[in-house]
Amino acid sequence: MNEVVKSGQEKGASGQVQLKSFSEMVHRMNSPILITDFAGKITWNNPAFEDITGFSSSEILGSHPWDLLDDRSNNAEEIEKLIQALSHREFAEVVVQTYRKSGEKIHLEVQLTPVLDEEGSSPNFIAVYKEITRSLANEEELKYNLRQQELIAEIALDLNRYLDFDKSIDAVLGALMQHTQISRIYIFENIDKGLACSNTFEVCNAGIEPQIDNLKYVPYEYVTYWEKTLQETGFIFSEDISELPADVREVLEPQEIKSILVFSLNVNGSFFGFIGFDECVVYKTWKKSDIELLRAISGIIGNAYEREIARKNLVEKNEELRKINAEMDNFVYSVSHDLRSPLLSIKGILDLVMKSTGLEEKTRLLLNRAGDSVKRLDETIHEILEYSRNARLDLSQEEFDLRRMIDEIQSDIQFAIPFKVHFEREVSDNAVQVISDKNRINTLLKNIIGNAYKYLRKDNPSSSVQVKASLEENELKIVVSDNGEGIASEHLNKIFDMFYRASKTSPGSGLGLYICREIIQKIKGSIDLQSTVNEGTRVMITIPVQPKQV
């Protein structure tokens, strides 16, 4: 066709003959085609143009192409392009919206090409039409589907964006309102053990009266159809609410609702409430894709409610647990503190009696046993107090002398050992002054070094305890080694459990290493223990410390 037009432009009068031949050729073509004169009046059309518009040849010939456009206001810009092309003898391509003679709306792509003679004048124009209604509809459908996917993504983001659940739901309903342009969107939650429902969230379009304050308590017994239908089918759908039962209309009509779409909200498999979409201006025809979109979003909102309820339950359980732990800690602290006072009194009395003269040997032996029992009980109470302090008190950071701390612990312990022990302490210069939780580390080292002494073998003339400490990149590494009785391998995975005792040679409560583990967890450090029976034990501790200010 381009060759024919070009030939007509180049050859003038002979081109007219060729144009007529071209007309005969395109007469049977499927593409709708018009030929106009220089003024734009239609002088010829092929049958395909009659088929696409529904107009007869007699109605078409002699008219202008835009005279056939019923909706000229929507095509004003395109018509102006055609008029300008005609007056300037130029090519033009436009897309117009028009109607078939039957009234069916269609979209046409129009290409207007001038046919020039030898003088450059344009005795004729050729207009080739192509119907693009379906392709435009498909394109719009794709765009609409894309907007739906974007909406789902936006809603999922909104439900995770805010820590405040109510703000999340308000944002979601706002996004739905912007997308659907419906009159009113709302959520009802079941209350009163499911016997009624309450309007908890609502957004309204401009000019629509809010109803949330009027619907705070709606018994289901007044709208039995509503609850039954939502539980059985999961949705209520009506393009004209006059079709709904009378008890439902009594609730909906005062709200000026014309069309309605409602989906149940299910939480943990149970009917929890519903989300609704009201149209109050016109009777709305719901597209299937819209219904499926809103159904999917209702499911997403239901899942969000599940997460929120689970979060609230977790917060409540944590708060209950916190209170129980606090009460238990206070109880343990109070009882332990109250028990120590009479124990110390008993210990003092026993010491005085033991200093008395004339005691029988048997009496002295019994008093010694009683004193040992009081001592063990006092040590147990002391350990319980240490555990309670670790649980109750926050972390504190202060600078202290690690070398002096180790020496003081060793000095206190050595007098309780009835045989000679070689003690070696090695602290690197950069680890002498450290910043960490002094009290907790003191308790930790007292237990570890104390155990090293406590479980030495009395029959070993070369008993020794070694403590080494170094600082590496804000981590304090402490290693406590001994050549004592050691721990059997079957006990190693249990030694940090509460009240677990791996040795029967020395009395103890089984709390010491458990407290050490709790302290390590509190200060976010680590502890590891290696031991071999009759060879000794090695405890490796890593503690994060604050960098010292230069």
Q: Your description of this structure?
A:
It is a single chain. The chain is α+β, with helices and mostly antiparallel strands. The chain folds into three domains: 2-131, Beta-Lactamase; 162-286, GAF domain (Beta-Lactamase, 2-Layer Sandwich), CATH 3.30.450; 394-544, Histidine kinase-like ATPase, C-terminal domain (Heat Shock Protein 90). 45% of the residues lie in helices and 23% in strands. The protein contains 14 helices and 18 strands. The protein has helices spanning 2-11, 13-26, 47-53, 57-60, 76-88, 133-161, 165-180, 224-233, 246-252, 288-354, 361-392, 402-414, 438-454, 512-522; strands at 33-37, 42-45, 92-99, 105-115, 124-131, 184-191, 196-204, 218-219, 235-238, 259-267, 270-279, 398-401, 422-427, 433-436, 464-472, 475-482, 526-532, 536-544. Strands 8-7-6-11-10-9 form a six-stranded antiparallel sheet, with helices on both faces. Strands 2-1-5-4-3 form a five-stranded antiparallel sheet, sandwiched between helices. A hairpin with a 3-residue loop joins strand 17 (526-532) and strand 18. Helix 12 (402-414) packs parallel to helix 13 (438-454). The two termini are 88 Å apart.
